[in-house]
Write a structure and sequence with these properties.
Elements lengths: L9 H22 L11 H13 L18 H11 L27 H13 L6 E3 L9 H4 L3 E5 L2 E11 L7 E7 L7 E7 L5 E5 L9 E11 L3 E2 L5 H37 L1 E2 L2 E2 L4 H29 L5 H26 L10 H11 L6 H13 L1
Parallel strand pairs: 1-4
Antiparallel strand pairs: 2-3, 3-7, 4-5, 5-8, 6-7, 9-10
Helix pairs in contact: 1-3, 3-6, 3-7, 6-7, 6-8, 6-9, 7-8, 8-9, 8-10
Length: about 375
């Protein structure tokens, strides 16, 4: 009898297990030899690791099949994101960057000429990743109203003036997609392809609490050809809206993977640690911390799975994505805090990855729309 129960499809269970084996065989041995706060891999080592991933088909996972990618569903992307985050650099370099090959999602709405010049080389592995620049100093969680970077049409070019904030990977990328204001309101924002060495574009590193620092981008009369406009003038957010919502779902899966690794470490520590004449694991206070963490991670994972499943069915998942992102990042942060407490002083030492994860997950509560913004979205759906 069909019970109506839901479970992870077998092909995604196999994918999850493949990623786990890759992490154990190739990622963890590399990372064990690196300094605690290492950020990324040198180019030659990254290319070697990516080659191993491509042999297993772990490449261009988000890219649709018609463009040469794996075409993973949102649920499949979530499964990979959780497992790939289970390493010290996992918050910002899942699997140390092994699973590359995905251009910014808006490029799938670009012209054939734009796609061939900029996106296809990333899928082919001959070009590094590209960045996406939306956030500004005036705000990141409400970009449609906060964007002030100006793009003014002058003949066959656009001239950009202003700045972007908190942009990841910018100096290491060959190009990026930059959102700028060409008119008023939400329909006055356009997306442009901007090459790294364009005159007038400079990058400034922003020191933060996490090991991985973002950048500020400065645009001083940056002139780019009009053919580097993606879509029509004012279509920037319209082209990217679905991708931005789906991205929140996948974003939530990484912190869950990190918190699960931390919980596994805490359980092992509690079993091995002798205190006050017995095992740490036998103390009720510790048991309840572990139990609360297990329950919260199960709930977070299922919320993310549900949001991804609904996205794959073509449903409106704006609220689902906010629920998944809010609960996933908040739960992961609480779990990690408990795991540090269980480890005692060892938990805040650089001997373990816990303190680095703690700093990284604090950032994740802000990224892709802060927790409070997700609450606003959910609240509006309840009282509208």
């Amino acid at each position: 009898m069909d019970t109506g129960a839901w479970e992870l499809p077998n092909e995604l269970v196999l994918l999850r297990d493949t990623v786990r084996r890759f992490m154990d065989a190739h990622v963890h041995p590399i990372e064990e030899k690196l300094d605690h706060d290492t950020v990324g891999l040198p180019r030659d080592r990254l290319v070697e690791l990516q080659a191993k991933a491509r042999e297993l088909g772990l490449w261009a996972l988000q890219t649709p099949e018609q463009y040469g990618g794996a075409g993973l569903s949102v649920l499949g992307q979530v499964v990979v994101a959780e497992e790939a985050a289970k390493c010290r650099m996992g918050a910002f370099f899942p699997a140390l960057g092994a699973f590359g090959g995905n251009p910014p999602n808006i490029m799938f709405k670009a012209s054939p000429e734009q796609f061939a010049k900029y996106a296809q080389p990333i899928i082919d592995g001959t070009m590094t990743k590209a960045y996406t620049a939306i956030t500004e100093a005036s705000g990141g969680s409400d970009p449609a109203r906060a964007i002030q970077l100006k793009a003014v049409r002058e003949g066959d070019s656009y001239v950009l003036n202003g700045s972007k904030m908190w942009i990841s990977h910018a100096p290491d990328a060959d190009w990026g997609v930059v959102y700028a204001r060409t008119g008023e309101g939400r329909n006055g924002i356009s997306a442009f392809i901007v090459e790294k060495d364009t005159p007038g574009l400079t990058f400034s590193r922003i020191p933060v609490m996490a090991s991985f620092a973002p950048y500020e981008l400065h645009f001083d009369n940056v002139r780019i050809p009009a053919e580097q406009l993606v879509g029509a003038d004012g279509q920037g957010f319209a082209l990217a809206s679905d991708f931005l919502v789906h991205g929140r779902i996948v974003y939530a899966a990484g912190p869950i993977g990190i918190a699960q690794s931390a919980l596994d470490m805490a359980c092992q520590w509690a079993r091995d640690r002798d205190v006050f004449g017995g095992r740490l694991a036998d103390k009720q206070g510790i048991q309840w911390m572990l139990v609360d963490s297990e329950v919260e991670l199960r709930a977070a994972r299922l919320l993310v799975y549900q949001a991804a499943w609904n996205a794959d069915l073509g449903r409106n998942v704006r609220v689902d994505a906010s629920v998944a992102k809010m609960y996933g990042t908040e739960a992961a942060y609480k779990v990690l805090d408990r795991c540090i407490q269980i480890h005692g002083a060892l938990g805040i030492s650089t001997e373990l990855p816990l303190e680095r994860w703690f700093r990284d997950l604090r950032v994740k509560r802000l990224g892709e729309g802060a927790t409070e913004v997700q609450r606003e979205i959910i609240a509006r759906s309840l009282v509208k």
